[in-house]
Write a structure and sequence with these properties.
mainly alpha, MetI-like fold, 9 helices, 69% helix, 0% strand, disordered C terminus
Length: 166
């Protein structure tokens, strides 16, 4: 899993497209969502954070108190993982929201275009509409800022967790 982070996305575009086309050839939203459900970076980050933030003694104490495995996850592990989940949520949202290469490959119909694709069409071969492109870029930043401000309390904790040895 970790070694897949070293492979550039351009190298896996063709095999990924073939796999998605075989699964659901006519559904562009399936192709936009499914390949990014469990990114390698997210799995690696959550695994590292879980090892440091959730001590085994805490889990054993909850089991001794009679907590089920689902209750253990919901009442003990999930509250401890909130900072990492917030940081991963912001990263995943920004990564998929700003993506241009993959949607250019899998989306054909103009009514299915994502926001970066729509802005990109304003700078085509027939002409450049800088005023509309720049206005669209400013408006495109609003959802990113909104997600950032909604999750800003989790970010410093999630990004600095495990940074200090102790």
């Amino acid at each position: 899993m970790f070694s897949s982070l070293a492979v550039p996305f351009a190298v896996i575009v063709v095999p990924l497209f073939i796999m998605v086309a075989k699964a659901r050839p006519t559904d562009p939203w399936f192709a936009l969502v499914v390949p990014w459900v469990a990114p390698a970076f997210g799995i690696f980050m959550m695994r590292q954070f879980t090892e440091r933030a959730v001590p085994d003694e805490l889990l054993d104490a909850a089991r001794i108190d009679g907590c089920t495995e689902f209750g253990l996850f919901r009442r003990v592990v999930l509250p401890l993982l909130r900072p990492a989940l917030g940081a991963l949520g912001v990263w995943s949202f920004l990564d998929s929201y700003n993506s241009l290469l993959w949607p250019l490959i899998v989306i054909i119909e103009p009514e299915d275009y994502t926001l970066p694709m729509g802005i990109q069409t304003l700078f085509g071969a027939t002409g450049r509409q800088y005023d509309l492109g720049l206005a669209g870029s400013v408006l495109a930043a609003v959802p990113s800022l909104l997600v950032f401000f909604l999750l800003r309390k989790q970010l410093p904790e999630g990004l600095t967790a495990g940074a200090v040895k102790g």
